[in-house]
Predict the structure.
Amino acid sequence: MNITNQSLYELTGDFLTLMNMLYDEDVDEESLLDACEHIEAQIEDKADGYAKIIKGLEVNANGIKAEEKRLRERREKLEKRVDFLKHNLEGSMRAMGKTKFKTDLFSFGIRKNPASVKIAEPAAFIERCQKDGRDDLLRFKDPEINRTAVKNAILKDGEVIDGAEVVQTEGLQIR
């Protein structure tokens, strides 16, 4: 086994092979343990390298996330500015009685938007529709599982719920 420049996968395989060789009575136990310690040190060095890469990627991902937030806020400000300018221009056109005109660069016109529905009191409207049997005017969402409630029912209340179980996973932590 050549442990210089081996991948973490290869080092782990070599380590497990050596550990299995400990059960072979014909192999010198002390030499095997020394080799295992050497491979373990190599694995720890590789783990340090992995951690450096992971930390660097996390920093980059967090920077991108912050930049996304900054850009979203900037986009929203620009969109508000566009709405403000359009509103001002439309107000001026209406005040002058100009609903349509052309310049060398653009065409301007005030047109009717598609019809939309305005509901004065949504809660009262929904209640009235349900009372009158007009479910066709409503949209119902699919139910969602409340995982916190299921977990509490199983762990705190000791319930057995068919098709549900509480699982405990493990994950790597790098500090």
User: Anything to note?
Assistant: The chain has four helices and two strands. Strands lie at 100-102, 107-109. The helical segments are 8-21, 29-96, 122-131, 147-155.
